[in-house]
User: Fold this.
Amino acid sequence: MPDPNRRDFLKDTTLGLAGAAALSATATTARAAAASDRMVVGVIGPGGMGTAHLKQLVANPDVQVAYVCDPDAERLDKAAKLVESAAGTMPKAVKDLRHVLDDKSVDAVFVATPDHWHAPATILACDAGKHVYVEKPCSHNIREGRLMVEAARRNNRVVQVGTQSRSSEHVVRAMQLLRDGAIGDILAAKVWNSQRRRNIGHAAPSDPPATLDYDLWTGPAPMRPYQTNLLPGIWRWWFDFGCGDMGNDGVHNIDIAGWGLGLDTHPSSIAALGGKYFFDDDQQFPDTQYVVFEYPGNGQVGHKKQFVFEQRTWSPYTQEGYENGNAFYGTKGVLILGHTVGWKLFGERDKLVDSMTGKPDLPAHHQNFFDCIRSGARPAADVEVGHRAAALCHLGNIATRLGRVIHFDPVKEQIVDDPQAAPLAGRTYRDGHWAVPKGA
Ligand SMILES: NC(=O)c1ccc[n+]([C@@H]2O[C@H](COP(=O)([O-])OP(=O)(O)OC[C@H]3O[C@@H](n4cnc5c(N)ncnc54)[C@H](O)[C@@H]3O)[C@@H](O)[C@H]2O)c1
Assistant:
């Protein structure tokens, strides 16, 4: 039988005063115990996705949102009001994330900034003793991803990456079927991203909005003049701040590809072609892109694996009915998955054998994060897993930018025999900025 709701219970006129007092004392003690057990969190970057996290967090009785943090005063104000109206208390609203990290009472931070801040914020947070939920792609470049893993491990912190499909029941089920051999040996896979994007135009440098601390927003990235087609959210399509649509929406399915293929390493060869075939605007990343990743395994037949990523951000065609999808090709069948929709499993002669529908489960991914903080277990999208998925996006973008095959040492995490490509595994930072990760 469910516990009686306390408020309804007190309304019961058959309950004597002594009984009510005793009940009230018990409830107070229980509330105090629950309050002390609540996770105290800060949300860093309550923009589009950060607000989605915030809405989820304020609805969670086991969480107290103590801070919101954003260099944009308008967004900061909106976020603080959202918390106040949902939770009844005003969080501290700060524009510099160091204030959140300095507060010892904060257990965990959610980092939903633009990509160029993900690794710097995560590393600083881990070193300040915080657990971190960081949005995907977890890094802006390959070197930063490795430094994030090291920061999580040296501080023994839980770092969950925002690829929420890792906690979504239908995707977990599909991956289990693949592991159980439902389509035989899987040697190849395909990932596609065909979300339609818009033209961001051409813009000239101008003053940033009065509400935005643009210097703080730029952070450790090189300072460049503000222009109107950097915001809102369009920073994604700029090399200094984002990772293109491969790192933006592609990364969800790229992560699933590695999971379904059972990969626990990086690829050794990456071949790519692509560029801007459609948009005549300031976007720097390709709108059309084909990348092949090859994993040699032990070199024997049956051990080599590959997957192909294809992207067209302008075409209305949704492949297999999914605008973002995965296909896993096995010796006995194929599994086609759209992580926001569901999946279908076909056996020999394309016979439909099984299917399931489902959506990305953000609450479950939050819950997994909090459970792991309490238990000390590795989360579903642990930072090492997130680093491997993000590295694929970075490698694919580098190979596309250079228009040739690049070779990668998966152990040293270095691009080999290519002096032009090798530095692109890292980035150039603003000289002397406080958030530049050590060792980058
Ligand atoms: N998991 C998902 O399904 C999903 C969906 C959408 C976006 N995302 C990810 O979320 C992140 C944010 O995307 P968005 O669309 O919400 O972008 P956005 O630009 O709307 O929001 C980013 C916010 O971060 C703030 N910010 C910038 N620098 C900051 C700093 N130093 N400290 C604190 N705040 C800072 C910005 O002012 C802005 O309010 C991206 O990495 C994106 O890939 C994930």
Notes: The longest helix spans residues 17-37.
